[in-house]
UniProtKB/TrEMBL annotation:
It holds the Pfam family Glyco_hydro_1. It is an enzyme of class 3 (hydrolase). This is 6-phospho-beta-glucosidase. InterPro entries: GH (IPR017853), GH_1_N_CS (IPR033132), Glyco_hydro_1 (IPR001360), Glyco_hydro_1_AS (IPR018120). Its EC number is 3.2.1.86. The lineage of its organism: Bacteria, Bacillati, Bacillota, Bacilli, Bacillales. It comes from Metabacillus rhizolycopersici. GO terms for molecular function: 6-phospho-beta-glucosidase activity.
Amino acid sequence: MMTNKKQTGFPEGFLWGGATAANQLEGAYNVDGKGLSIFDMVTFVPKEQRGNDIEMDVKSLKELEELLAQGDEENFPKRRGIDFYNRYKEDIALFAEMGFKTFRMSISWARIFPNGDDLTPNEEGLVFYDKVFDELSKYGIEPLVTLSHYEIPLHLVRKYNGWTDRRLVEFFVRYAETVFDHYKGKVKYWLTFNEINISQFSPYIGSGILVDQVEHVEQAVYQALHHQFVASARAVKLCHEIMPEAKIGCMLARMEVYPETCHPDDVLVALEEDQKNLFFTDVQVRGAYPSYMLSYFEKNNIKIEMLPGDEEILLQHPVDFLSFSYYMTQVASGNPDKLKQKGNFSSGIINPYLKSSDWGWQIDPKGLRITLKKLYDRYQVPLFIVENGLGAYDKVEEDGSINDDYRIDYHRAHIEQMKEAINDGVDLIGYTSWGCIDLISAGTSEMSKRYGFIYVDQDDYGNGSLERKKKKSFDWYKEVIRSNGTNL
């Protein structure tokens, strides 16, 4: 006899909130002992010069040294962020007014260990996050903290070529142990690596790799990823030992893939693309390298160097939950000529059934329901949507209002599909919309690509008062949270 009661609608205690990253938010890049990180070196390229393409890789040591020589004269938007470092109390008060249950943020590794390989932490960095966590606690907001969100200390790139070097495992574990010890009792939800699969598209941002320093780029990327898998599993082990009440998850940039047609060639290519995406969560949730990737490595002459005990640590310390970002879906084809087309974030084909954002990202709410069902069927662990949102141009009207109905429509449609997935039996524990307050875009370093419910008065070149204004979506999301998703 079946006794399980079916969940309908969002469960009690559902973690509604918003998501950010230190490097896009904080500013104060050279204050109170902070070292440079990889995103501090990414310059702004106007949209008319690059189209919708993402511009965030630094590819060579020469390019990196030239950027360093420029000092802060060039337009490095992530160095200034939106001054959360000095305005965190004001911003957290606005999050509390919206009713946030949780706030996803990251700790800047370079604020705690300025070089990454330091033996002792920077106390001023630790104190800053103490103040942030205390302010969140004042309003009953649970922090959800990412340990590494595109914030590899730059010194680790210059000296070790990032995660290609096994020594970074120990540096990361030292960092993780330091913050776990320091913030135990203040943080109950943790993530290890943000969008760990991004190294496939951006070796520099995902793994701190300068591709001119390696002979076989794909080999270097997957070796670096192995080191990150081991570091993540060791962080999971430490978290459970230091904070038994805490939960720690992995984080994937989810890329649901549709076949262009029902032709078996298209279906096979879509399956293989999906496997390349799910490989990362297979390792971190299931605890082992899947056979399809071992086959891929063999076919592509990729040899992963493992130390004794690596496979054991991966198997014994899987994550507690699976978190992911969701912005769009992809379309795959078995016809190589079709792949020359440009669609969405990385590659693929334009889906004729979907509308697109101002930046060409196709909008697919039902795809979120599909991916929730697929992930839960595959893993049977709690799921957490930790990034989802619409990057758009916002207009401030003469009366100061910002009528972003397009953003409300976007979130409403996605939240409706989340509710359907929960009704289908998916265990979904939370939702943090990306860029709940306007911040510097990760992919384009623009300020004009806005995601927030809160407007920040700053342009792409850093001009503006930094005044915070509530958009129309602010009150809408406040009511969504208050009603636990029943009033959309």
